[in-house]
Amino acid sequence: MINIMFKKTQNKVGSQGFTLIELLVVIAIIGLLATVVMTSLSVSRARAEIAKVLTDYKSISNSLELYRQNNNGTYPGNPDISDPMSIADLTSAHLADYLKQVPSVSPAVINMNAGIPNPDVYYAQNPLGGAYPRYYCGDTNSNQDYVLYFTPTQQAIDSGLFETLSLENSPGDFYTYPEADAVCILVNQR
After folding, report:
1. How many domains does the chain have?
2. 156 and 109 in contact (C-beta within 8 Å)?
3. Residues near 167 by Cβ (< 8 Å), separated by ≥ 6?
4. Which residues have a Cβ under 8 Å from the Cβ of 152 and sit 6 or more positions away?
5. Is 98 contained in some domain?
């Protein structure tokens, strides 16, 4: 009879809790799930930053076109290829009336350690009348009045949402910038 009581007590104690191994397995699974969720959130956050930058700079393109329509067909300033203007300067000096919000520099998209003057997006207006040198964003056969370009982060390059930047020094003499040095934002122009 004593043996039977001892067995019953032993079963009660063993069935009331979890073993150490069971607890460790559950903790490991929770940790693995948390890692997967955090990784996917950071990727989603980077994609959202890239999409925001594209939207911001397409609105700058629209503002440039509004400016051109209101100013006898000319674009703001004279930022030629040898002296591009940063978007911050462009928006504060010329486009403030056409933009609701000035775009901010995004460290997820723009390489903050770049060798160009400042980590920013730049605006360069091509010479009038088809003169050279000329910048092209993507298609080198198109007639582009200006380009918006920047030095990208690896995330921006990997997104595939930006175009290659080319410089035509003379008819047919093209230099295409490596993606790590500069990419451009393809925008609609007249």
Report:
1. 1
2. yes
3. 81, 133, 134, 135, 136, 174, 175, 177
4. 109, 110, 111, 162, 179, 180, 182, 183
5. yes
Q: Looking at the domain assignment, is residue 16 inside a domain?
A: yes
> pLDDT per position in the chain (190 positions), as tens?
455 555 544 555 556 788 999 999 999 999 999 988 887 777 778 778 888 888 887 888 888 888 889 988 888 876 566 678 888 888 888 888 888 877 766 666 777 665 554 567 788 888 877 788 888 888 766 778 888 888 888 888 888 888 889 988 888 899 998 988 888 887 766 5
With a threshold of 0.85, does the pTM exceed it? no
The answer to whether 124 and 149 are in contact (CB under 8 A) is yes
For residue 132, is it within any domain?
yes
- Structural domain containing residue 68: 2-184
Does some domain include residue 189?
Answer: no
> How far, in Å, CA of 187 to CA of 156, rounded?
17
